[in-house]
């Protein structure tokens, strides 16, 4: 019979040897976009302030835009959840890229909070796509719109794309809200 001091050590070794054949997996990180269903009021105020500031700047400029990226014949509600996430991610990519362009110092200050919010939302969406639908292929509707977006990036001026992204910012936020909903959105 082993001395009493060795019994806890034997129990520990036995527990370790029994647990070894069963792999321990880290818990799967869940994808939660619920905070984007209803952005907090100070975020929305910052978006309104930035859009109004930009509209005042536009009144003084002569930006002409022929792109109609945000005029679609379909609604995000018609898309699957992974397609809605891809749509919102593409729109956020455009918006954050345009808000990251050099600008008038007063506009640079106005856009900091919205840019931080949109950047975080984009990163959260990317994380969700990576964990939930890493190999998802977009539907025909979305694929066509993504091609239209790519063509616009290659042919339109940065000023035109910036105006389009900022002037349709609340549509982007609505599409983000729609992506955050797991059930059908309206």
TrEMBL record:
PANTHER family reported for this sequence: INTERFERON LAMBDA-2-RELATED, INTERLEUKIN-28 AND 29
Annotated keywords: Antiviral defense, Cytokine, Secreted, Signal
GO molecular function: cytokine activity
Keyword Secreted: yes
Signal peptide (from-to): 1-19
Protein name: IFNL3 protein
InterPro entries: IFN-lambda_sf, INF_lambda
Domain of life the protein comes from: Eukaryota
Cell compartment(s), UniProt: Secreted
Family per similarity comment: Belongs to the lambda interferon family.
BP-aspect Gene Ontology terms: cell surface receptor signaling pathway via JAK-STAT; defense response to virus; innate immune response; positive regulation of immune response
A Gene Ontology term for the protein's cellular component: extracellular space
Organism: Pluvianellus socialis (Magellanic plover)
């Amino acid at each position: 019979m082993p001395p009493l001091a060795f019994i806890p050590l034997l129990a520990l070794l036995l527990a370790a040897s029994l647990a070894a054949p069963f792999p321990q997996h880290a818990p799967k990180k869940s994808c939660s976009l619920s905070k984007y269903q209803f952005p907090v009021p100070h975020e929305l105020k910052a978006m309104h302030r930035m859009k109004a500031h930009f509209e005042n700047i536009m009144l003084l400029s002569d930006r002409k835009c022929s792109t109609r990226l945000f005029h679609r014949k379909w609604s995000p509600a018609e898309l699957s959840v992974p397609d809605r996430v891809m749509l919102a991610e593409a729109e956020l990519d455009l918006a954050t890229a345009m808000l990251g362009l050099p600008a008038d110092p007063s506009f640079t200050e106005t856009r900091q909070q919205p840019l931080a919010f949109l950047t975080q939302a984009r990163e959260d969406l990317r994380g969700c796509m990576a964990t939930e639908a890493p190999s998802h292929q977009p539907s025909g509707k979305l694929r066509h719109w993504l091609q239209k977006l790519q063509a616009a990036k290659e042919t339109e001026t940065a000023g035109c794309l910036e105006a389009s992204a900022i002037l349709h910012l609340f549509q982007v936020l609505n599409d983000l809200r729609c992506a955050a909903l797991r059930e059908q959105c309206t």
